[in-house]
Write a structure and sequence with these properties.
The chain is an alpha+beta fold and 890 residues long. It has 15 helices and 37 strands. Strands 9, 10, 11, 12, 13 and 14 form a six-stranded mixed sheet that branches. Strands 27, 30, 31, 33, 34 and 36 form a six-stranded antiparallel sheet that branches. Strands 3, 4, 6, 7 and 8 form a five-stranded antiparallel sheet that branches. 52% of the residues are buried.
């Protein structure tokens, strides 16, 4: 029987463990041979260095040395620099390596490939490394990190790559929804129920990314990963690799499937990790196989692990959502809206609506005591949510500014949640469990773009100060560590945290212009890519030594075991962890696992020290399993460092745009005026071209002058023609300067009497019914009657067509449909206006067929009379009570 894999990733906040990890840790008893010659190893950042940054390598020796020198040799074998190894040891790593000496390479600035050769009291040669510009150094991390996301793709749209990925889990397109089961106590993912309990479906949850080395898919981790990919794309602009845009949108599309706006349901997870105690069904972690095998797995025992993976909800339809989830998923949607605002405004608006509709359901008044993250929660135990709410609101504010929506409510909300975070939640740094650094930085940007309004709960100075605090947490930790590690390598997620420290330093530098921590940021990259006790990079494919045996099924089965050929390029593993977590050994191999390393050896064990161990073995989930959140942290850390090191600290030219007053009114035949004000948000003043869009028929909006220099103003005049329909109309005012655009909204109210809403009863004599459709008594329905037996069932088919749905003005109307649905799950119906293309609408349960509910549907109607046909050729439709059509479109 296969050995089940553990999956829990418990974490301790970096700030909370700082004091403990700064104290001396017990050394590992790895003995050196008696009276042996002194041996040494050079640890260096194998990815390389930027030309102008401080460069440091480390010499680990088996005994103290006093007279070692070094040479730097280029790829031609020429010596380009010589020097003396530091004579004061930075400390003892373990008994085998009781001395660690610094090697300063400060004079090395010319681009090229080099090695460090140590001589004198000890001989050693480093792996090769390069000196390169930011795009060449950091850009490779970004592109390779995106490559790992391509490896993780699920569904039909896979990218074959060197690992020969194939379409997988196509059955997820029609998956059933189940109640969250019960689990054994003590953090176990073993299910105690005899079976899962179906509560809904089918739903389409195909696509997305497998979370780690397994094939589970989580909304919680995907939202974090996708948000930071989108933020990375935004930060790099034209310098972003072409693959980044496609991958970020692939993730956003899956999140959009997990969020059903019609039923207001957020789906949380696809798949289960383990089976049940009775052994009647298995989970994903009980099998070791290629993902494309799952759809064809006919084993009843594997039904939930493979062919028919369960889906779990984060909320009841229309119910409130755990605020950490609502915030971070909304942030991902809002970032997608920002990225698409200029190139695809229609799609941007759709993502913006998804973000606002989900954010509105956040349960901040009474958050669940255990925040919702996964099933079980112990996979990803999160304790903070205000950071995610700030994150979501900050990104919504930026999206609103780009799309000409009202950003003020989201600016206010973001500042409020930022204040709450500062008062209650400080302690961690940027990673999957704490998004505050990116939230702070983007709230600073949103406040500046809004013209630095007063009255917010926090100031930009408050936010910048907390970015500095988070940077300093890592810097203080690094200052006390002999390899200058800012992360805690005796706990989970040190690599993710360390890449997060890189990102936070860049965000702080952008916000403040403070370059004090540049050297510290370099040290974190050095540690991650080889300047650590183990002498390995923790990102697959980077440097000479990197993980070969990650706990990843596709890589293990289809890939190499020696780091050559087919590898999961760009994957970031957990990294070193507490040595105590290996007290029970690595366990056995699952059925189907390829043994890796092939000889079962552990070459890194010689470097276990300071209560930390790193194992590169397919069984070592504690250190060698990759995950999308870890790799996403690497992508954004690299992207932001590339951005700040490519442009220095000088901010790009930017401007802010406002209109005042923000609203006005005029009667038909009159006009309204306002002033458009621009200001310099960053850099120097540049010309800003002004345009207005979105005015209704009969309204002409002019701007004079049409181009101003940032800091100038223009007059907005909205002329209202006679006969213009009364109503409130949002007019988008957009300013464009170079490749930057910002928008704001002016609301024009045309006074007069608006046409009344029109109500149309389903049972009205003029309507057309076919087949089984018939009136049914309904005391609580309008008119006491509803039309039932609609749709297609075994007994036959029924449809209803409303006749004479009349509006004065052609346009899109928010039609309210009153219906009843006594079924346990949602019913759907196809709506066709005037015989046009059908639109499928979902109708959530109302509790009983005598209890009405309402759904609002956007329908495009022609001026005059219209027909609306309601049918369902493939299933039962809801019973219908009536339609209410607003008097005006909107």
């Amino acid at each position: 029987m296969p050995t089940a894999r553990s999956r829990a990733r418990r974490r301790t906040a970096l700030g909370a463990t700082l004091a403990a990890t700064l104290t001396a840790a017990p050394l590992a008893f790895v003995s050196a041979p008696a009276h042996a010659a002194t041996t040494g190893l050079v640890r260096v950042d194998q990815a390389g260095f930027l030309p102008g940054e401080a460069k440091l390598a480390y010499l680990m020796t088996s005994a103290k040395v006093t007279s070692a020198g070094f040479s730097v040799v280029d790829s031609n074998g020429s010596t380009v620099q010589t020097g003396t190894v530091g004579t004061t040891s930075l400390g003892s790593w373990n008994t085998a390596y009781p001395a660690v000496y610094p090697i300063a390479l400060g004079g090395l600035t010319a681009p090229g490939t080099y090695k460090v050769v140590v001589n004198g009291g000890v001989s050693a040669t480093s792996p090769s490394f390069k000196v390169a510009q930011p795009a060449g150094l950091y850009g490779k991390f970004v592109a390779d990190g995106v490559s790992f996301f391509q490896t993780q793709r699920d569904g039909a749209d896979t990218v074959p790559g060197t690992l020969n990925r194939k379409p997988a889990h196509l059955n997820d397109a029609s998956a059933n929804v189940y109640a969250v089961p019960s689990f054994k106590s003590g953090g176990s993912d073993e299910i105690t129920n005899s079976d899962l309990s179906k509560i809904g479906g089918p739903v389409n949850v195909a696509g997305g990314w497998s979370d780690a080395g397994d094939y589970l898919k989580f909304t919680h981790t995907t939202a974090y990963a996708d948000a930071v990919l989108l933020a990375s794309q935004r930060a790099l602009g034209p310098a972003a690799p072409a693959t980044l845009d496609a991958e970020a949108h692939f993730g956003a599309a899956w999140l959009n499937r997990m969020w059903d706006q019609n039923t207001k349901t957020l789906y949380l997870q696809v798949g289960i990790g383990s089976g049940n105690s009775a052994g009647t069904f298995t989970g994903d972690h009980d099998l070791w196989r290629l993902p494309e095998k799952d759809d064809g797995d006919t084993s009843s025992k594997n039904r939930y692990a493979a062919a028919h993976r369960p889906v779990f909800r984060a909320n009841t339809p229309g119910g409130q959502v755990s605020p950490n989830l609502a915030g971070r998923v909304s942030a991902a949607f809002a970032l997608a809206a920002q990225v698409d605002a200029a190139s695809n405004p229609t799609q941007a608006q759709a993502y913006y609506r998804a973000a606002t509709s989900l954010y509105a359901l956040a349960n901040t008044a009474n958050p669940p005591s255990t925040l919702t993250t996964a099933v079980p929660n112990d996979y990803y135990p999160e304790s903070t949510w205000r950071d995610d709410m700030e994150f979501g609101a900050a990104e919504l504010a930026l999206a609103a500014q780009k799309l000409g929506e009202n950003a003020t409510p989201y600016l206010t909300a973001a500042a409020t949640w930022a204040k709450g975070y500062l008062a209650n939640d400080k302690g961690d740094t940027f990673n999957l469990y704490d998004t505050s650094a990116l939230a702070h930085a983007d709230l600073i940007r949103a406040i500046a773009a809004a013209g630095n309004p007063g009255g917010l709960a926090v100031s930009t100075a408050d936010l910048t100060a907390d970015l500095k605090r988070q940077t300093k947490v890592g810097a203080d930790h690094a200052a006390a560590d002999m390899f200058h590690a800012g992360g805690n390598y005796t706990d989970f997620d040190v690599d993710s945290h360390s890449f997060g420290l890189l990102a936070t330093e860049a965000l702080y530098k952008q916000a403040s212009g403070d370059t004090t921590y540049d050297g510290y940021a370099t040290q974190q990259r050095n540690w991650l890519f080889g300047a650590n006790p183990w002498g390995t990079s923790f990102m697959v494919g980077e440097g000479t030594t990197f993980p070969h045996c990650i706990q990843h099924q596709v890589a293990n089965i289809n890939g190499s075991t020696d780091g050559t050929g087919a590898i999961p390029l760009g994957a970031v593993v957990n990294g070193p962890n507490s040595s105590g977590i290996f007290s029970g050994g690595l366990g056995g191999y699952e059925s189907g696992m390829k043994k890796c390393p092939a000889d079962g050896a552990d070459p890194f064990n010689a470097f276990t020290g300071h209560s930390s161990r790193y194992v590169d073995d397919v069984r070592s989930w504690q250190t060698s399993e990759p995950a999308i959140d870890m790799t996403a942290s690497a992508v954004i850390g690299a992207a932001l460092q590339q951005a700040v090191n490519s442009t220095g600290t000088a901010p790009a030219d930017d401007f802010a745009l406002n209109v005042g007053p923000a609203a006005g009114s005029a009667a038909p035949g009159g006009s309204a005026t306002a002033t458009v004000t621009t200001s310099v948000a960053a850099g120097t003043a540049q010309p800003v071209a002004l345009t207005a869009s979105g005015a209704p028929a009969g309204v002409t909006v002019s701007l004079a002058p049409a181009t101003v220099t940032a800091g100038g103003t223009a007059a907005l005049t909205a002329a209202v023609a006679a006969g213009t329909a009364p109503g409130s109309y949002p007019v988008t005012v957009t300013g464009t300067s170079g490749g930057t655009a910002h928008s704001t909204t002016y609301t024009l109210t045309v006074t007069g009497t608006a046409p009344a809403d029109g109500a149309y009863e389903a049972e009205a004599p003029g309507n057309t019914r076919t087949g089984r459709a018939a009136p049914v008594a309904c005391p609580d329905c309008s008119g006491g009657t509803r039309i039932g037996y609609l749709g297609t069932v075994s007994a036959g088919t029924g449809s209803l067509t409303f006749q004479g749905v009349t509006v004065a003005t052609a346009g899109t109307y928010q039609v309210r449909i009153t219906y009843t649905n006594g079924s346990a799950g949602a019913r759907s119906a196809q709506l066709s206006v005037n015989g046009g293309a059908a639109k499928t609408v979902s109708f959530a349960p109302t509790g009983a067929f005598t209890t009405p509910g309402t759904v609002t549907v956007a329908l495009t109607l022609a001026a005059g009379g219209n027909t609306l046909a309601v049918a369902n050729p493939s299933g039962a439709a809801p019973d219908l009570d009536r339609l209410v059509v607003p008097g005006t479109p909107g």
